[in-house]
Amino acid sequence: MKILAIEASGPVAGCAVLEDGVLIADYNVQYKKKHAQSLVPMMDEVKRMLELDLQSVDAIAVTKGPGSFTGLRIGAATAKGAALAMDRPIIPVPTVDSIAFNLYGTKGLICPLMDARRQQVYTGIYEWENLNMRAFEKTEMQEDQADRSSAENLKLAVLRPQCVIPVSEVIEDLNARGREVVFLGDGVPVSREALADNMKVPYSFAPAHLSRQRAAAVAALAFSYYEDQGAACMVSADDFRPEYLRLAQAEQEHSERRNFSLLL
CB within 8 A of 168, min separation 6: which ones? Predict the structure, then answer.
């Protein structure tokens, strides 16, 4: 199974290629250029470096949202264009889930924070679930057998699905859970003060190389979907749509003005 992954939902533009669970290319850039200017040239460079025959690609993975409205549209258009040209399906990947996937095997809770502006964040709450230990609890499996194989049977569990909420609500939820948490994402810098003032449980921040969206994580999570669900995780290029979670600011302001005018 060969997957070409595209990431354009936030500050980072990226593409990656993963084959049968092995990452063979990962190209990510966070710089001045807009994604519309950088994404396709990055894909062309990966294709050239790998001597990649696009017909050998089995599926296109792309973050479906939430995130930057412009970035999501660019990512969607790029993925749909590639999928149509290659006659391949798309594997949609939730953006916040893919960020959490960066911290494979982390003990405790994982909480990505993406800056959604208007004093809100795109976020979710996750943990790594040990499937072997669950099986151990239900069977007579020897404890040392479960320990030896546990590293191969971790699954990202979604405790709170991705959503857009004030950071205060995230903090309240995490404090109520009473467990240590790791934060990551481009929303961390704008949330640090609120976290410092209000978090009552131990917390830390992911290191720089794991704290942003990565195309490799999109590819790896898409592959895990394929292993679990097969073709059920795929959609056609025609059927793929980004999931914004809320209206773009201009659309929201237009809707608010329209609703106000109806009251007059």
Answer: 194, 198
